[in-house]
């Protein structure tokens, strides 16, 4: 339990720095009775326990469609890492490969989700589990 609380604190600290630096707003949706899904940059979506929040949701944008991104379907396929990188505007993108398609993901975002399984479909965004 203590480890989860530390993780939530770290994510919220990271989120606040991003908001201050990029002048973004927090968007969220209810995930279930105890959790919310939050994003501030449109690229990273985190699941946080409601009772660990150190900010009020009153000033945040509720966006119920975020929950759709977290639902696995038959179209979602597990992705495998490759060692292929390409540079676009000074950012490194890593090639992730499914059986029948590939996607490119900014490598800096993958570092936030180590030791996870990665899923995607051609219809929606990458999911980390």
What does it look like?
There is one protein chain. This protein is α+β, with helices and mostly antiparallel strands and 129 residues long. It is built from 2 helices and 10 strands, in the order αββββββββαββ. It has helices at 2-22, 107-110, and strands at 27-30, 35-39, 46-49, 61-62, 77-78, 80-88, 91-97, 102-106, 118-120, 127-128. Strand 6 and strand 7 form a beta hairpin. It is globular and about 40 Å long. The mean pLDDT is 80.
Offer a few descriptive terms.
2 helices, 3-stranded antiparallel sheet, 129 residues, single chain, 4-stranded mixed sheet, alpha+beta, globular
Give the N-terminus to C-terminus distance in angstroms.
19 Å
Structural class: alpha+beta
Biggest β-sheet: strands ordered side by side in the sheet = 3-2-1-4
Q: Percent range for helical residues?
A: 10-25%
Cα-atom radius of gyration: 16 Å
Largest sheet, in brief, is: 4 strands, mixed
Mean pLDDT: 80
Poorly predicted regions are none
Number of helices: 2
What is the strand tally? 10
Q: What letter string, H or E per element, gives the SSE order?
A: HEEEEEEEEHEE
Write the layout of secondary structure elements.
Elements: H1 2-22, E1 27-30, E2 35-39, E3 46-49, E4 61-62, E5 77-78, E6 80-88, E7 91-97, E8 102-106, H2 107-110, E9 118-120, E10 127-128
């Amino acid at each position: 339990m203590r480890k989860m609380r530390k993780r939530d604190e770290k994510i919220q600290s990271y989120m606040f720095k991003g908001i201050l630096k990029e002048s973004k707003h927090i968007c969220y949706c209810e995930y279930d009775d105890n959790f919310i899904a939050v994003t501030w940059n449109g690229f990273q979506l985190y699941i946080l326990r409601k009772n660990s929040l150190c900010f009020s949701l009153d000033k945040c944008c509720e966006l119920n469609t975020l929950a759709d991104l977290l639902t696995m379907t038959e179209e979602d396929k597990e992705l495998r890492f490759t060692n292929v990188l390409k540079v676009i505007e000074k950012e490194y993108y890593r090639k992730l490969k499914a059986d029948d398609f590939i996607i490119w993901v900014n490598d800096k975002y993958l570092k936030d989700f180590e030791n996870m399984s990665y899923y995607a479909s051609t219809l929606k965004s990458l999911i980390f589990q």
